[in-house]
Amino acid sequence: MSTSKSSTAKRLTRRSFLRGSLAGAAAVSWTAQSWARVKGANESINAGVVGFRGRGGSHISSIRTMQQGEQGVRLAALCDVDSKVLGAATAKFSVPGYNDVRKMIEDKNLDVVAIATPNHWHALAAIWAIQAGKDVYVEKPVSHNVWEGRQLVNAARKYKKIVQTGTQSRSSSGIREATQWVQAGNLGKILIARGLCYKPRGSIGKVADAQKVPSEVDFDLWCGPAPKDEMRRKNLHYDWHWIWNYGNGDLGNQGIHQMDIARWFLGPVELSPLVFSVGGRLGYEDDGETPNTQYVWHGYEKAPLIFEVRGLPSAKGAKGMDSYHGAGVGVVIECEGGEVVVPNYNGAVAKDKTGKEIKKWSGAEDHFANFIKAVRSRKSEDLNADILEGHISSALCHTGNVSYQLGKTASVADIRKTVSAHRGGEETLNRMVEHLAKNEVDLGKTPLTIGAVLKMDPKTEKFIGNAAADKLLTREYRKPYVVPEIV
């Protein structure tokens, strides 16, 4: 199995960061701002969107809807490293276009920035925008690694900015009411908070040689803080999710949503003190690096949080995916007196131990509109998904992947010896093995990887007694795209 390991990042002071950011690049005229341009109820809020081939398109739609309504939000700028994508959008919406986020955020009339770039750009773009005086909506995961996510939280607090995470389930009144109902003890103690990402992920193919980057893409800007390696996959776009230098697998792609909801039910706003992972990239050989079959076990004091990823179908040749207690991409909160199933982004169902439905919730508000509300009030507590919540849930994905990257292949019997001591660990393993057997995966030829069992200090967000794991909490950044240390 091919994995890529990051090395320890160089920590820079604010002064050395500015020197490094400007060296070898166009001069950036903005400086860090702690002020906030408070907008009155009738004043328009000018918004810019960074990256919009995919999720950023939804940001544009939200802004345009509010522009036509009473919220007073105006699409004022667009930024994308793909000149074709950028040109088409700027012509359609008649707004300025930029290929470099540093140039866009120089605009002092720009109030908010929405970021939907690949994962490896999220934290840096958000921090730069904050330092330029902007409020920020940043897509999930808010970071590519644990350390830079914490710097983003620090930046939001230091410069007193409103920063919303793109985990839109946090704007669901239905799910919120379900969490409160469970936390009130209506089903007894939580036994396991389980997130699921059973989502089809086929092979991305395998190429023999380095591929040509599309001519319309500024590849240096696309890579940004990540290594500028040769492109050794068929598609530049989207398939970066399965390459360690840029993505975080389905934990950080789809799974961050369900991981966040599962932690919401449990309650802690900190990392878990114990984590391990089991999985592999199985069923095909391709250029992807991240696992397509995986579970991560987080040992919280109240109950374990288990997250499962399945990219293969329910059986070899089948079109459908597996489900667990009625959820495929969702959350199941298993309690003493029953369970709550969250099968989507805006509702939940409570069932007793016999499976009978006893209560149901639904409802949600617009997540981007909630962000704008907080921008006007200047109160981060008005946010449904404050950046701290986004950082913690993103970091749960990252620590699970750190365990996996430090793992080794082993037999199912040997893995069972490790996981059986942890509630739900063996049962989850057994179902994974059964699922792989139905997909005709021979674990004798392509064995599972058992990740390192890692202890963490949630206060310092560092591992205990494992220097190799600590190195993977950050990365070595490529100048001038260096994430600054914010103190």
**What is the arithmetic mean of pLDDT?**
92
Structural class: alpha/beta
Q: Strand portion, in percent? A: 15-25%
How many beta-strand elements? 18
Instruction: Specify the CATH architecture of the largest domain.
Output: 2-Layer Sandwich
From the spread of the alpha carbons, the general shape counts as globular
The CATH homologous superfamily of the largest domain is termed Dihydrodipicolinate Reductase, domain 2
The radius of gyration computed from the alpha-carbon positions, rounded to a whole number of angstroms, is 22 Å
CATH topology of the largest domain: Dihydrodipicolinate Reductase, domain 2
The percentage helix is 25-40%
Largest sheet: 12 strands, mixed
Count of folded domains: 2
Distance between the termini: 38 Å
Number of helices: 15
Low-confidence stretches: 1-36
Tell me, what is the CATH class of the largest domain? Alpha Beta
Describe the structure.
The protein has 15 helices and 18 strands. 31% of the residues lie in helices and 19% in strands. The protein has two domains: 14-170, Rossmann fold, CATH 3.40.50; 173-363 and 388-471, 2-Layer Sandwich (Dihydrodipicolinate Reductase, domain 2), CATH 3.30.360. The chain has helices at 14-22, 56-68, 83-93, 101-104, 119-131, 146-158, 173-183, 219-223, 249-252, 255-266, 367-377, 387-405, 412-419, 425-438, 467-471, and strands at 45-50, 73-79, 97-98, 112-115, 135-138, 163-165, 190-198, 274-280, 293-299, 304-310, 329-335, 338-342, 347-352, 357-362, 408-410, 448-450, 454-457, 462-463. Strands 7, 8, 9, 10, 11, 12, 13, 14, 15, 16, 17 and 18 form a twelve-stranded mixed beta sheet that branches. The longest helix is centred in the last third of the chain and has 19 residues, at 387-405. Mean pLDDT is 92; it is low at 1-36. The protein has 487 residues and is an alpha/beta fold.
